[in-house]
Amino acid sequence: MPDFVPVGIVGVGTCLPERVVTNKELETMIETTDEWIVNRTGIRERRIARSEEATSDLAVQAARRALTSAGVEPDEVDLIIVATATPDHVFPATASLVQDQLGCSKAGAFDLSAGCTGFMYALVSGSTFVSGGNLGTVLVIGAETISKMLNWKDRSTCILFGDGAGAVVLREVPRSTGLLASYLGSDGSGGPLLQVPAGGSRMPNCHQTLDASLHCLHMNGREVYRFAVRVMGDAALDVVKRAGLNKEDIDLFIPHQANIRIIEAAAKRLGLSMDKVLVNVDRYGNTSSASVPIALDEALRSGRIKSGNNVVMVGFGAGLSWGAVVMKWQ
Ligand code: ACO
Q: How far is the CA of 222 from the centre of ligand 1 (A)?
């Protein structure tokens, strides 16, 4: 049996568009209120990309910051994975555009699609390249401009999301630290609950699909809510057990930031007080694949993660899909 290399996050960076859209501003666009949005979701404002700003633009800035914080030069990167549901194009991969912009001349690059769970899938995938001893440095990015696929007349979805990007650098770390356990799940029978119906091979875009807004995000909010509350707690418990830990050993819980009520329900299921839970959904809304790395960066900057801490990250989203990891911070 090969000796697995311990792998961990050695650098983190984020990029958030400058433009802040508050609930008050949404009140001028659709029939909604700040009170409704805050009560049902916990969201107060979100960042929205400029019309000329694409997903790769946010990804490149987040990645540059992650490389700087890790002290890694672009030509030391072996692989770039971009998790996104809003790529710049159907092809080429956004990861290839990022590779070029960063000047990562020796890196391979590919995109990974798993809805809002994309970053968790990319983190686990990237880790296996390092832990297997095949690659030394992997850049994992979650980047989205979800605002571009929203129907801004649909008040049940457009209030929920925001744009942004978060990136991490994966490398070998001291033994007994880094990634302790991971867990990835999928239930494709729930696919229709959260989808962009048109624009793929099933229903290529045409005048009719555009007129019916089928190129935009469609969601059965109530069903996705039920699913999310169940899997967030279950996935966290499962991964903690796989790591040989108990829920009392969790020092910080970083959940996908979709809705404060979902986060609170998951924390309750884990028996965690909210001071052990990272919440920033109030400021950024649901940034899909970018939400967990943006929250991780905030946790590190604010000193909420200390050496030796067990950090649990959990994502869920379209697929339906979900994923969780436990990391002991080095
Ligand atoms: N402002 C005011 N009223 C609204 C709004 C709004 N923005 N949106 C919906 N309503 C109304 C509805 O029309 C409905 O009115 P009615 O009772 O007269 O029919 C009422 O509010 C209740 O609507 P519900 O949809 O039942 O509200 P609910 O409490 O379920 O909250 C929400 C909706 C916030 C979307 C919730 O279901 C949710 O958070 N679901 C999970 C969504 C999620 O996390 N998605 C991300 C998945 S990750 C990914 O991969 C993208």
A: 7
